[in-house]
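Subgroup meeting minutes
Present: P.N., E.W., G.H.
Scribe: E.W.

1. P.N. recapped why we're keeping a running log of single-chain structure predictions: easier to compare across weeks, and new members can see raw inputs and outputs side by side.
2. G.H. added today's entry (66 aa).
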Amino acid sequence: MASAGYNPQEAPKVYEVRLGDEDRGLSATHPSGSKRAEKLNKPKVMQKAVAIYKEVKSGQGVTSFI
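Output recorded in log:
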């Protein structure tokens, strides 16, 4: 989402509030909102997401996801 210009620091809140642990038929292929928020809140993951977000917002685009 960071590469699409969405602030990754806000994403965990959105995942928890909008998706939570509800099973909306996505559980077979997608993690719950709570699991997404938990993973994104890990410092290393958030650092990378923020770096991608800043790259996109600076107008440079994303050079790499890895």
